Amino acid sequence: MSWSKLKQQLEGFLSPALNGRVEYRAPGYRYLPDKSGICYILVDKKNVLQMSDKTNSIRWYQTELEIKNDPDIQVPVSSDEIEAVRQGTKGPVPEDRLIVMARSRKSTEHAKELLSAQASLSKSNFIVVANKFLTTPIEESLESNDILMNVLALVDKRVGKKRIINMSEKIKLKHPIVQYFYELRRNTL
């Protein structure tokens, strides 16, 4: 599918409150066939998400440790996860230490997922993900670990007010760009 047709379809799914505020851009360079070019998302004429660009205002992580130490990312731990750590230690461990160990394990897994999702952002990936988004149910797009799928789903008109409000806990585990678009959408309700 051509970029102009893809862009038209994506903008057709925008929430009415964000129509005209959110724009998708992918300038092509026809004289540089070996260059993939850039792709970015504008909000209120400001470049918010440029694929594979570390210079914009959204925090990009370089290491797993940065993610684990970020106070904005809160990793909740369930009783099942604590019990799994208890079984793995095979000895008496204080309850508060079990919680710390379970949170550390889960935050390491989460950090790896975030780094992997962040590393895959590029223009060609944007086009592939956008095409996938157009053929995927909105629930799957919201639950996906892919940053772009989450962003496209959050600005979609098929996601209603009630669903946006009920997502507040899940969003805390997502990449800062997903949190940004969640807040943008929530503030337009």
Describe this structure in words.
With 189 residues, the protein is mainly alpha-helical. A hairpin with a 2-residue loop joins β2 (40-43) and β3. The longest helix is centred in the middle third of the chain and has 25 residues, at 95-119. It has helices at 3-12, 64-69, 79-89, 95-119, 123-135, 138-143, 147-154, 161-166, 168-171, 176-186, and strands at 22-25, 40-43, 46-50. The mean pLDDT is 84. Helices cover 53% and strands 7% of the residues. InterPro entries: SF0329-like. It holds the Pfam family SF0329.
Write the layout of secondary structure elements.
Elements (H helix, E strand, L loop, with lengths): L2 H10 L9 E4 L14 E4 L2 E5 L13 H6 L9 H11 L5 H25 L3 H13 L2 H6 L3 H8 L6 H6 L1 H4 L4 H11 L3
Antiparallel strand pairs: 1-2, 2-3
Helix pairs in contact: 1-5, 3-4, 5-7, 7-10
* Unreliable stretches: none
Determine the N-to-C terminus distance: 32 Å
Q: In percent, how much strand structure appears in the residues?
A: 5-15%
What order do the strands of the largest sheet run in, or round the barrel if closed? 1-2-3
Q: How many DSSP helices? A: 10
- Shape category: elongated
